[in-house]
Amino acid sequence: MMISDILKNTIFIGCGSFIGGAARYLISVAMKSAGKGFPWGTLAVNLAGCLLIGLLWGIFSRNGNENSAWALFMTIGICGGFTTFSTFSKEALMMLQAGNYMGLMTYISISVIAGIALVAAGYHIVRV
After folding, report:
1. How does DSSP assign the chain, residue by residue?
2. What pLDDT sits at residue 98?
3. pLDDT given at position 38
4. One digit per residue, pLDDT tens: the chain, 128 residues?
5. Nearest one of 93, 12, 68 to 85, comparing CA atoms
6. Can you tell me the distance from the alpha carbon of 24 to that of 41, in angstroms, rounded to the nearest whole number?
7. Is 41:23 a contact under the CB 8 Å cutoff?
8. How far apart are alpha carbons 52 and 36 in whole angstroms?
């Protein structure tokens, strides 16, 4: 892959990330009053992002265009900007489909447990 292709793809992904991030913010604002004490907006975004990346992955893989600029814009860009949980879920499914059960359980466990622990660590480092 040439540097110009990498730069072009990076720009496509960045534009998609802007759209996905803005959409995530707007949905979170719209759902703020949906339920006190429960992150309905985040849950809705994560689940919608999972469905969207699954649909897109299916479409692009069926057509053999998984690495096209349009696929990168839609999946890594929009879905990734919308929620990285969708990418996490796609990667977990790929491990499941490949029969990599140990890798799957390790990936899920480390991502969730270490993710929560690192958020707590970062918060406490700054707050103390």
Report:
1. --HHHHHHHHHHHHHHHHHHHHHHHHHHHHTTTS-TTS-HHHHHHHHHHHHHHHHHHHHHHHTT-TTSHHHHIIIIIIIHHH-HHHHHHHHHHHHHHTT-HHHHHHHHHIIIIIHHHHHHHHHHHHH-
2. 94
3. 75
4. 799 999 999 999 999 999 999 999 998 888 877 767 777 888 888 889 889 999 998 999 888 888 899 999 999 999 999 988 888 898 999 999 999 999 999 999 999 999 899 888 888 888 87
5. 93
6. 8
7. no
8. 27
Structural contact between residues 102 and 68, judged by C-beta atoms closer than 8 angstroms: no
* C-beta separation of 61 from 75 below 8 A: no
Are the beta carbons of 87 and 56 closer than 8 angstroms? no
**Residue 22 amino acid letter:** A
